[in-house]
Recover the amino acids of this structure.
């Protein structure tokens, strides 16, 4: 715990404010950015002539053009008046809210310079900022920021794809090595064991056994012909090779389905682990899935855990999953562990501070264990208060960061000029990196400042939930609620699930049609949430006649809920509205 922990910190003052309270300060900073932009141009190549002469700029024809542009711009601004107002504390719908000022200013300043951080050649500063910002995020989740690697992505979906891309290469290359040895030297081939040897072992064997790169390529499902390679594996093992499986928890984000689809895995390779009655990965079930894969001779592409589920903000027992995978590692089974912390990565800012106790100890331990994974997804554009589009993919070290490699090149942290080789995306904006960078330089990603904003959201959720239960007897909160999201159904004692689902969805529709508050809904299916649905119904003797549970969902990440006047005005107003919506 730091001595600075006790210092008062005006978390919400780091935002523009629902009444543009910080307007004149922000105007000054935006002005400074524009001044810098104009001066920068003038100061460079000062001897060069002006390019746009007054006669052209100020010709009557062009002045008319300017007028049209001005009108259309004002049209655009007019249209934007009807955009969803996400700055207000009345917006508790999705995982988005007011942007922080460091993020907004960093984004805007960098936008004007338009760096494409795919290459140092076109983004000298942008690329440097990216490595520094990645190091900050890496430190936040507990990686050694001096050795962690990563890059910014278009979002969490892309970052998750990056993990699959790497895990697939590693698995594929190890398997191809084993296949070459089986065919060339008659080594026994166990696809499951071979695929999980890990990069280091791969490199050792490759050199020791003097394996030719061309042979490896020909035996690779990614670089060669997958159908031919599968046939050859089958020939060596005496049974058909059915390919790897991707083990995801039932609470996963939809992007994992997309990943399986995109990487040609087929639905059959997409294995869901059932959840326990708290909606978290069932550890026994996870172990069973791994054993099942092993028995079928199918390698595990990766095990995914979720820190901060999209539905309810819940945190998987990442530590216990890491324990299981480390126990396997001791048996030379290296399974890739990726933590999808797109939403929840920023809860790590609470750790080590006084306010970490807003989280239960189990969730603190889970967050601390993110650093034991190979790779992690973080979405600054969610709980980082950074503008879209800004996701990040981070690996513990350069071994995990490597995509395809038969030769084991060393990725020099300082040399990011070839970043495009190791990113799925090509051109990438530096604005998100800069927004994250400036946030890290000011708010930091620790408990002293940023963590207080995050803690305030969790507190707000707790206070609001209490008030909800008190005001509206039909409110049945989903338990547990680990973080800053509350989900609830509206159910009468002893009624059927279909009745309460209908009521909950009807109330959601009324909120949708009402401008005063934005809420969201989620529907949990029994395929993954079977035990949780039963547990939820128990609380009010609900009768299960349906296989899904509809919930209203409120996300408390808006920083202004810390303001007592805001809370005291909006809470009863919301309750009144909700009560009126229930028939
Ligand atoms: C939002 C989210 C994603 C996807 O992120 P995008 O930025 O929307 O692409 C992935 N995983 C989890 C857990 C998420 O909450």
């Amino acid at each position: 715990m730091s001595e600075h922990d006790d210092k008062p910190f005006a978390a919400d003052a780091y935002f523009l404010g629902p009444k543009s309270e910080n307007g004149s300060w922000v105007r000054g900073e935006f002005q400074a950015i524009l001044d810098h932009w104009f001066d920068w141009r003038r100061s460079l190549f000062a001897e060069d002539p002006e390019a746009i002469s007054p006669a052209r700029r100020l010709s009557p024809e062009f002045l008319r053009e300017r007028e049209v542009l001005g009108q259309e711009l004002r049209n655009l601004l007019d249209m934007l008046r009807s955009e969803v107002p996400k700055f207000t504390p009345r917006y508790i719908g999705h995982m988005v809210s007011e942007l922080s000022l460091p993020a907004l200013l960093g984004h805007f300043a960098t936008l004007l310079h338009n760096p494409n951080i795919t290459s140092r050649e076109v983004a000298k500063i942008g690329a440097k900022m990216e490595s520094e910002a990645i190091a900050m995020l890496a430190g936040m989740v507990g990686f050694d920021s001096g050795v962690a690697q990563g890059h910014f992505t278009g979002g969490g979906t892309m970052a998750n794809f990056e993990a699959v891309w790497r895990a697939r290469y590693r698995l594929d290359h190890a398997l191809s090595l084993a296949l070459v040895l089986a065919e060339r030297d008659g080594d026994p081939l166990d696809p499951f064991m071979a695929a999980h040897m890990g990069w280091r072992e791969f490199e050792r064997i490759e050199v020791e056994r003097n394996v030719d790169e061309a042979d490896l390529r020909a035996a690779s499902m990614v670089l060669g012909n997958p159908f031919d390679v599968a046939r050859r594996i089958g020939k060596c093992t005496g049974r058909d090779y059915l390919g790897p499986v991707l083990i995801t928890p039932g609470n996963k984000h939809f992007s994992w389905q997309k990943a399986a689809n995109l990487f040609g895995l087929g639905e059959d390779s997409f294995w869901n682990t059932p959840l326990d009655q708290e909606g978290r990965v069932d550890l026994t079930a996870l172990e069973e899935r791994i054993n099942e894969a092993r028995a079928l001779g199918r390698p595990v592409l990766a095990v995914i855990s979720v820190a901060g589920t999209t539905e309810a903000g819940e945190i998987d027992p990442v530590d216990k999953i890491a324990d299981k995978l480390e126990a396997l590692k001791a048996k030379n089974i290296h399974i890739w562990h990726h933590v999808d912390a797109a939403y929840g990565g920023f809860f790590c800012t609470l750790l080590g501070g006084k306010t970490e106790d807003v989280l239960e100890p189990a969730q603190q331990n889970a967050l601390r264990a993110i650093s034991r994974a190979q790779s992690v997804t973080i979405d600054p554009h969610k709980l980082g208060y950074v503008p879209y589009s800004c996701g990040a993919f981070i690996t513990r070290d350069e071994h995990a960061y490597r995509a395809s490699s038969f030769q084991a090149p060393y990725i020099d942290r300082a040399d990011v000029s070839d970043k495009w080789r190791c990113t799925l995306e090509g051109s990438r904006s530096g604005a998100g990196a800069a927004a994250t960078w400036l946030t890290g330089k000011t708010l930091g990603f620790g408990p002293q400042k940023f963590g207080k904003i995050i803690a305030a959201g969790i507190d707000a959720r707790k206070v609001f939930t209490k008030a909800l239960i008190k005001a509206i007897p039909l409110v049945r909160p989903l338990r547990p609620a680990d973080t800053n999201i509350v989900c609830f159904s509206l159910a009468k004692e002893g009624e059927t699930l279909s009745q309460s689902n209908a009521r909950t969805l009807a109330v959601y529709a009324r909120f949708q049609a009402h401008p005063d508050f934005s809420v969201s809904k989620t529907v949990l299916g029994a395929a993954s949430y079977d035990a949780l649905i039963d547990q939820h119904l128990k609380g009010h003797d609900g009768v299960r006649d349906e296989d899904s549970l509809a919930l209203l969902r409120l996300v408390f990440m808006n920083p202004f809920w810390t303001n007592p006047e805001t809370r005291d005005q909006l809470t009863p107003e919301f309750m009144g509205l909700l009560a009126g919506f229930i028939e």
The first strand starts at residue 149 and ends at 153. The radius of gyration is 26 Å. The chain has a mean pLDDT of 94. Residues 155-157, 160, 253, 255, 306, 310, 340, 342-343, 379, 391 surround pyridoxal-5'-phosphate (CB under 6 Å).
